[in-house]
């Protein structure tokens, strides 16, 4: 192969055109592939911590309070994201992109913590150590999530956000499902250490994506290769933490932003409760094994993920984010009522699996709509921090719901009333989300951008 060469008219020298590296800013398909891959990596540890381990604990006779404590502990770091996001918005190595260096660090942290978890001796008899390990796995999962979401908001055009969210959340649910199936099988046959080591290796493979793909043309792949920061990232970069919090205060206290935050918190209490409830309910009430729970949940997540990738994003994009979120919430309420009224069918072969399938499809569709709304409300100048604040509120709600499982079950005693808490959360969110006006909010953000004045350090 001969290199194409050009000749300078003025200098009379032969000039070889620069190689075009893979850059997210230049290619929509590359953006979809990259963010889907990174969300798959995010789903891998969640399949282990949110599903496989709680089901394994339930199978080995741990109480709802103990399992709820584990799920709550792994949910807490996701609430701390708001402390990490401003640092990412303020400090980065711009020649490698605004968020790509942080994505790489987050994935490396996940790999290391998963390998450290494999060193726990007799985790069933050392639940506090397992809880601590789960906390740190979630911390680096949340760390990576902040960086990926910030990069997505920076890079994705508004017209691609709904479809991208569909692909991202679909990929995440597929990652959760595959992780759940594989880790459950490995735990049952070889033990937890082998499962965590295997998942660490799978994340190592996905790490190659952010290592070899740039945010913008002309940037560095690594600190020791050629390249420089793009003008776009230099312009968007906030220069001090005070500026970030000052801007966040102005944009978050706009009416639609506050309302969305309240709605997300309430709904996430329901999500967290269901995450802690389902393995206990199916294994200790209905009599499933953890393998049965894993198979049903994994298949439900795979179907939900595929539909999320190819259906939910398109629906949200075509009919509108808020309109479709309302529909998904009403369908979820109906589904919960059917489960409660059909108690006599709980031990049948198909009734509860059908419910779990419907629940995860609607759950995935809701998240795609919610996060698309949240992305649209973000001020790009502080994208990672603002979006992370919504997610931190969401994860605080999740941890709250999971942590209260034992108390709620003790207070209500019957599963029907415990499950109905989810429907109540959905009803409250319907009320709040009806008050969100994205058009008015974006006009206000545009005014804030025009009025923006950098603060002195």
Automatic annotation (TrEMBL):
Keywords: Membrane, Transmembrane, Transmembrane helix, Transport
InterPro entries: AmpG_permease/AT-1, MFS, MFS_dom, MFS_trans_sf
Main location: membrane
Record's bilayer topology term: Multi-pass membrane protein
Annotated localization: Membrane
Coiled-coil parts of chain: none
Keyword Membrane: yes
Keyword field contains Repeat: no
Domain of life: Bacteria
PROSITE patterns found in the cross-reference section: MFS (PS50850)
Pfam families reported in the protein's UniProt record: MFS_1
Major facilitator superfamily (MFS) profile domain residues: 256-457
Membrane-spanning ranges: 67-88, 100-121, 127-148, 169-188, 194-214, 251-274, 298-320, 327-346, 352-375, 387-406, 412-433
Annotated Gene3D superfamilies: MFS general substrate transporter like domains
Protein name: MFS transporter
Natural source organism: Namhaeicola litoreus
């Amino acid at each position: 192969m001969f290199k194409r060469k050009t000749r300078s008219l003025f200098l009379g020298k032969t000039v070889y055109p620069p190689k075009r590296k893979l850059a997210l800013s230049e290619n929509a398909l590359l953006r979809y592939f990259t963010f889907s891959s990174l969300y798959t990596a995010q789903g891998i540890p969640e399949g282990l911590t949110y599903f496989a381990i709680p089901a394994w604990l339930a199978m080995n006779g741990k109480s709802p309070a103990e399992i709820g404590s584990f799920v709550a502990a792994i949910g807490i770091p996701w609430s701390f994201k708001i402390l990490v996001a401003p640092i990412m918005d303020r400090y980065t190595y711009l020649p490698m992109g605004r968020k790509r260096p942080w994505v790489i660090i987050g994935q490396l942290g996940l790999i290391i913590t998963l390998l450290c978890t494999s060193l726990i001796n007799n985790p069933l008899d050392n639940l506090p150590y397992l809880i601590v390990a789960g906390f740190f796995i979630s911390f680096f999962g949340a760390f990576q999530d902040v960086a990926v979401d910030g990069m997505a908001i920076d890079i994705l055009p508004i017209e691609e956000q709904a479809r991208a969210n569909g692909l991202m959340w679909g990929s995440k649910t597929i990652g959760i499902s595959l992780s759940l199936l594989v880790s459950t099988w490995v735990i049952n046959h070889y033990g937890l250490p082998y499962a965590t080591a295997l998942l660490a290796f799978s994340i190592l493979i996905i790490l190659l994506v952010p290592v070899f793909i740039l945010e913008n043309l002309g940037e560095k792949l690594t600190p020791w290769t050629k390249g420089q920061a793009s003008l776009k990232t230099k312009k968007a970069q906030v220069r001090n933490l005070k500026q970030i919090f000052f801007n966040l205060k102005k944009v978050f206290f706009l009416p639609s932003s506050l309302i969305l935050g309240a709605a997300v918190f309430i709904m996430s209490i329901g999500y967290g409760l269901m995450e802690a409830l389902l393995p206990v309910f199916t294994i200790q009430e209905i009599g499933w094994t953890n393998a049965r729970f894993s198979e049903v949940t994994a298949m439900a997540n795979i179907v939900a993920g595929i539909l999320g990738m190819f259906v939910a994003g398109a629906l949200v994009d075509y009919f509108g984010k808020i309109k479709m979120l309302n529909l998904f919430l009403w369908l979820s309420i109906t589904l919960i009522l059917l489960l409660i009224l059909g108690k006599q069918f709980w031990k049948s072969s198909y009734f509860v699996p059908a419910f779990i399938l419907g629940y995860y499809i609607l759950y995935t569709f809701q998240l795609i709509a919610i996060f698309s709304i949240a992305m649209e409300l973000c001020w790009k100048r502080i994208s990672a921090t603002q979006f992370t604040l919504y997610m931190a509120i969401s994860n605080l709600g999740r941890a709250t719901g999971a942590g209260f499982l034992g108390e709620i079950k003790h207070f209500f005693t019957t599963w029907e009333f415990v499950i109905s808490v989810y429907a109540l959360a959905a009803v409250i969110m319907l009320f709040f989300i009806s008050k969100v006006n994205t058009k008015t909010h974006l006009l206000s953000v545009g005014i804030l951008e025009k009025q923006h004045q950098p603060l002195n350090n």
